[in-house]
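Hey, quick one: can you model this chain's 3D structure?
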Amino acid sequence: MSDTHNSQNAHGDHGFETVAIHAGNTADPLTGAVVPPIYQVSTYKQDGVGGLRGGYEYSRSANPTRTALEENLAALEGGRRGLAFASGLAAEDCLLRTLLSPGDHVVIPNDAYGGTFRLFAKVVSRWGVEWSVADTSDPASVRAALTPKTKVIWVETPSNPLLGITDIAAVAQVARDAGARLVVDNTFASPYLQQPLALGADVVVHSLTKYMGGHSDVVGGALIVADPALGDELAYHQNAMGAVAGPMDAWLVLRGIKTLPVRMDRHSENATKVADMLSRHARVTRVLYPGLPEHPGHEIAAKQMKAFGGMVSFQVEGGEEAAVAVCDRAKLFTLGESLGGVESLIEHPGRMTHASVAGSALEVPADLVRLSVGIESADDLLADLQQALG
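Sure thing. Here's the predicted structure for all 390 residues.
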């Protein structure tokens, strides 16, 4: 890839909103189209044997629409290389098989997306990779979980679904001291609210399905790295394994990213109002949102995030059945998995997104409800939650 993947070279003088719209989005040289075309093509006419036109030969290896997205992603995260995948888990799988060998060890968080846990516990472990759990909000806990074979420390911040906060810079120092790489899943925050590479992370992971796409109409994943050599290794494995983003999916994510800043501002504003209301509701026993001053990670979140995001979790009196009933009674909040779209969603993690962690150290409370707060009228969202709580 060209050095356009370096946001500091190409876009260092521009604000985030400008970069989101322009990075990778150069006008089409043939027609002048201001939006990159969807190159719905599998192969390319070559200029003689071994003579690639513009570096393209086959769309698993590279596709111009995907290249535009990858350049945009690298610029937004301040990275040297971005890679777009068919899903977030495809990105994670490629990363783990690039970084790890049988016998290596990984530290994973005690609060993480159920699919990520399943990848470690049911897939990668069969390959001979060991893992242990740590409370990543406590750097001492991470350090205590290290072994001489630790190659990767994995972090989600904010975490899914308990909205825990990890001090990225502090854990990055733990990783450097151990000779391990720090991977940060930045899906909940997005690069608009938080840029882990600038805080010392080695790799950023995204489910592009969520806030980056933003409209619940595409599935995708991404890796962004600070080290060009690691980027080359990942690109090799991505091509060898093949789980790449298709051109239509890449185009949809590019379109979504253009409005990421304005959407995240509204998500955060609405979520703050929702969290404030829930914290005063008689039937709510606990609200998990890093924007609340009483949240244990509030000060760190305020330091490393621009705002606190659109995800809110809360626990209700009456246990699991009461939590499920709240989900069932919601009307404007759609009962569904995933998150990060313009529309608000509600779910019961224990029975839905995090069913795979039942019985493990990552098991979530049975009375927990998770909200993806959309960009609708805040008053309408508050009214819906109030009637759902009864």
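One thing worth noting: The radius of gyration is 21 Å.
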